[in-house]
Fold this sequence. Notes:
alpha+beta
Amino acid sequence: MEEPTAQFSDEELMDNFPTMDDERIQLEAPEFEVEPLPVGFQDATALGCSCLAKEEEGNAEKVKKMKKTTIKDKVEAFHLRKSLNLLDKLHEEKDLFIQKTRGELRVCRQRMDLLNKQQESLASEISAERDANNMAAMGRLQAASRRLHAELENEKDLQSKITAMLKDSENSMWHIEIQKGQFEDVRKRNEEEAEARQRSLEIHAAQQLQKEKETLEKVERNRLLRAQKSLHVQKELGQKHQKLVEDAQKNHRIAVKFLKASLGRIREREQEEEMESRKHMKQRMDAVLALKNSITASRETLKKFQAWGQSRAELAKQKALTEKEVILAQGGDAFKHLVHQRRHQELEAQKRAFEEEQKLRKQEIVSRILKEEAEEENRKKKQHPPPKATDGRTLRDKTWKYISDFCEGKAAMPASHLLENEIALRPKPTCLLKAISSESMQMDLGSISTEEEVLAEPDIPGLWSKEYKTHQVSKKDMEQKPVGGTKMDKDILARTMEQLRGGVVHKQVVSGREFKGRPFNSKPEVIHFKDFDIGKVYKKKITLINATYTINYCKLVGVEENLKDFIHIDFDPPGPMSAGMSCEVLVTFKPMLSLDKELIEFGSYVVGETTSRTITLTNVGGLGTRFKFLLDSEFFEMEEPQPIMKISSLYTCEDKSLYEKIITSLSEQQLDINESSPVDIPSQKESEKDEMEIMPAASVITMAPSEEQAEITLGEVTEGEIGPFSSVKIPIIFTPVIPGEVQTKFKVMFKNSQCPTLYFRATGIAVDVPVWVPRATVDLKICMYDRLYQDSIIVHTRSKAALRLKFEVCKELRGHMELLPETGYIQAQSSYSVQLKFLPRHSLPEDAGKYFDENSRVLEAPMTIWVADQNKPVGFTVQAVVTTSDLEISPLEINFGYCTIYEAIRTEISLSNLSLLPQEFGFVGLPKYVDIQPNDGFGTILPLETLQLDVIFQPIKAKEYRFELICKSEINRCFKVSCQAVGVHPPLELSHYQIKFSATALCGTTVSRLYVINSHLSMNKLTHSLPRIGSEEATPVGPTSFEFLLPPNSPITISPSVGTVLPGKKCLVQVVFQPVLPHEVILKEAMQILNKEKENKPFQKETVQRKETWKPSMPVVRVHNRDRPSRASTPHTPELHRQELSVSSNEYQAAQANLARSFQGKFDRIVVPCVVASGDIKDRKELEPLSFSPHNTLYLELWCPAVAPSIVLTSNKGNSVLNFGDIAVGHRSIKKITLQNISPEDLALEFSVLSPNGPFVLINPSRKLCSGESQTLALSFSPHESTLVQEILDIITKRGTLSLTLTGTGVASMITCSIEGNILNMGYVLARESVSTTFKLQNESSLLIKFWMQLESLSKKRDETRQQLPKFLTSREQRTEIVGTQNHNGQSVFSVAPVEGLMHPGKAQEFTVTFSPDHESLYFSDLLQVVLFEKKVSHQILLKGAAREHMMFVEGGDPLDVPVESLTVIPALDTEHREEAEEIKPILVTLNYVQFDTDTPIPPATRELQVGCIRTTQPSPRKTVEFSLDGVAWLQHKGFSIEPSRASVERGQTKTISISWVPPADFDPDHPLMVSTLLQLRGDGKETYKVIFVAQVVAGI
């Protein structure tokens, strides 16, 4: 907030200015520099006006003056400008700071005023409270007053500071203004200089603008010059383009001319094609109508056959079911029987089909053979081999001789004489005819066979070589290039001939010689065919030689018109031919009969007129023959004229459409066969037989000409004889019947086979009356009743005058059909349109009468057009199929019954279309609680179709519903269905009414949850809808019970299925879906497996017994063996199998695994009803049911898709429960399971997490299982405590989850030992002898226990302990040695049997321990450990024993040495030296007399010593051991009492020496008593012991 106030003096301001060294100043400003003028502007400047030069001179003087300004002035000016700017900036900052300070001062004063007012108010309040003697409030107000006073003091201090700061700032501001006043003159001078600089800049800008204007003028002049040049060039280009356009237009006109001609030809061709297509379309329409009728009839027949087939199929199905039940009742395999029966039927059907096919093939082969025989006979009749002549007469003489003989009726020569001469030719009786025709007839030269006999002989031998192949010109080339050449070729030839005639041809001069004469020479020059026969082929070759001096060309021009029919030339143009080269030309001559015309054109004639033309048949030969004129489609044989003529006349004149009827019947029959069902096999066979009978007849019948062909017919004379060199005229009659072009082909056949058949055709055009209708039949297609249909009918006229027309409808249909207008005038050679309106009423069938067919519903109405001054009217037919527009709905009334608001009821209705037209329909105006599917009740129904629609009703509240469903058709017709229902609002509701389970594999589990909700809290109907049934009373508020009623044997489990829900609460319900195979299905499969196994056993036994007789009686034995078990097991097998089979049996497990593998999937839709009742289930009695209302029932829909498991267990018989059994605690058991992927794809495996602290562990989890692959998983069970454990391991794949149940029991191994204290003392044994003892271990657990017996001396740790320091070096407390003295021979001192084994539950195991020392020692010991399952140490038994060289021993006393032998081996002494070396062994006996402070008598201190005799098997002279103590009396004096002091001990016995001490009277308690005596033992030796007694008195506690 505060800002230091500074005053700037003149020196400070000057110091702030930059110096020359600090900043580099541009001495010459850019705006003062004068740029030199461009070179291009110098000329323009010279041409400018004089005023511009004066202005430039003035500007130059000003620039010179400005340049005279010194650098020092510029620097001073710069510093001044900078100081002025700095002063202005400081002035603005000080002014802003002063304003802010004044604002703060104002705010501070306002706060002070506010504080003063608050102090005044507090003072008044304090006085008021003081008066009220309210000390607490007064203290509080005084504290507030003090706080306000402190704030006021602070504000005053702040005000003084702000006031001082403001005063300083104002002083600084005044000082700055004074400094600005001092620099006012400098400011004005700088402003003047700035204005001068601005003026100079403006002058410079004006100069630059003038220069740019001059440049623009020059650029504009150049642009104009370029524009003129471009215009000149463009003008030249335009002229060239105009010339090109004119040439193109000229060429276009020429092209258009040719194009019009081409288009005219194309249009003519298109018109012809259109006429042909119309005719073809008309024929197709007729065929379609016929086919439609045929299809209708075929459909009816097909429906009959289908019904018959369905009935037969049902009968067969019933028969199969009956047989199946009989077989199952007998205990047999029905599936197997049905499979065999089906295969037998298939084989029979294949056999029958094969036999039918063989029959058909035989018939086909026979028909082909008969046909070939008939053709062979006809060929033989046509081809009679002519006899060969035997004389050497010429061909002409032979021919004339044959003609004369034939005319005189002489017989032909025998063939045997004619065949003798092989050189002679074959003259046949021919008719030498000459054809004279006004038009040329082109023949197919390709049909001339080169193998026919050629009667012409070559003039020059060798020219007709057999290897020569004539050049055959293709038919296409012949069609493209006529014989006479094209028009252009003819023009070129004509011009060439003119040039030749005019002498324009250039002369050929070679080597000074001029060529004269013909360019080509021909050999021979003249070809003369003579003595020829009609029909024979004669050939000759011509050789053309180039006679010129240079290369020349030759071309075939053609043949004269009168020779085209007989002469054919084969010429292959060789191309350029050198001088002297030659080429060959083949000339073929075939004389034929011909007509004078090949085309007879009648022209145009009106229908009903008759005209005729004649055709002349001329025979120019010398042999007559018989001829006959026929239609081209007729067949005739000249050999047997009478029968064929009768048949031809019969079928041609009397019944012209017989052939068409036969073809139609055959096509219909074939259609029926194609559409018939498989059941109609006999009818197909009969139809095929009928067809085989009809086909030969059809092949004999002559094809009758059509109606169009019958308009052009032959005259009365159609056959006869034609003599040699004569002619016959045949009339052709044309009688038009139907307007249009008519064409008929005829042929002329001759009895002489040498004369080929001649063909000609006749054409004519039939012209109708002047007025005609293009559409003879107006087809309105399918029409509905009460609907208006219109069509336009066009009437044409060819008359050259206007005609009056009157349109008339038959009187039967005048109420349904009309033609508008009824009268009209048609102009000359134009058309007239009349409107046809057809509105069929429902009375049409009665009104139309004969024009309407009620069965097919086809209307054919004749219409008449009367033409003025014309007797014959013009008629046409209006055809339509009239149908109804009714839609039929069934049923017309629907009662949905009771329905809750949480569900929907669906019912089906049938919608039938009685019309022959498809109709669009829709159910409109539906209530919001009704839905119609599919397509929301809209769609299109086909003709005579019935649709099934679903009407879905879902009420929105509880009431009675009555409504109507309205169906409208596309023509706005309405059809209604009345509906009624009762809406129910139940007191409970479900959170979900439909549950869709995911695809669950067999034995898998899927869980879903839902809530049962009771939302009925109050009876206030204004807040919410009350639960009720229809319009009945509402259900009271209170606890409401529910119960889910599951269907029997369903894979669904609901928990809880029964419960009570309080108002406003909800109950959680869990739904579990676990698909399993039905028990009955598994049991049935298991029974089949069991039956097969039982069938195989006797079958195998009988096979062994009947090994020799098996083959001949194999079918009988199979039937017998198949039936015998079924008969024997019929009454008892099911019950027996059900008793034998259980869930844990092998057959049951195998059947379950087989069915799981072959399971194809199953989808069940289960609806579970949930009944609702008021009240609590706890309040009801045990057997009293709740009052459930059937109308309040809720329904839960469950979608349960079950699929085959992707992974199956192949081990453990497919059982998913893996039981480890009883396992000892702390031990581990491993089991393996095998998984197989039976799905078609590879699966990634995931495993659920087992309990980390649990006993189950998956050892080898796998990540992937390929399709068809099997993997083995290892699972271990290691119990930690004695309890039953169960866990579930889920094997998860993307196709499902396989759950394995792992179970096992941990059992603690409880074993008891018969040895008390776990110490087994073997006693004393003579060295190198052994002794044995037994003990028992009892297995008190339910587990089989495996045990091992281990000795510590034989353990592996024994070697380690031996490497440590000896134990006798440590104190007694630190000694922990277990293994004592061992044998010197290396064998174990102790041994146990058995070493290992099994202990059964509840049994005991006996063990034998043997002690075998090899030397004398008192410290033999070892540790025996009982190890269970190679791991657990159950018991530790300490084994002890002592060995002596002699049979006597003494026990007792205090130990005087360590229990470890010395490392030095003491050598054994012999018996003699042993006694000498015998030592006295000390025995220390310490007696502690406990003295108490009480007066009770004190017992004496006692100790014991045992003297024993070792039992031995060695012979010994002494049987007992005697012992004696010396100085007993003296000991008694000292207070000792010893009993006995002397005695003997038997073998195996011990004797106890009791020692007691009571302190004598003179005993000093401070000094212990120590006395000794000798103990002598005598047995197999003598031993002396020094017994040292130490007695002392100790104080008791």
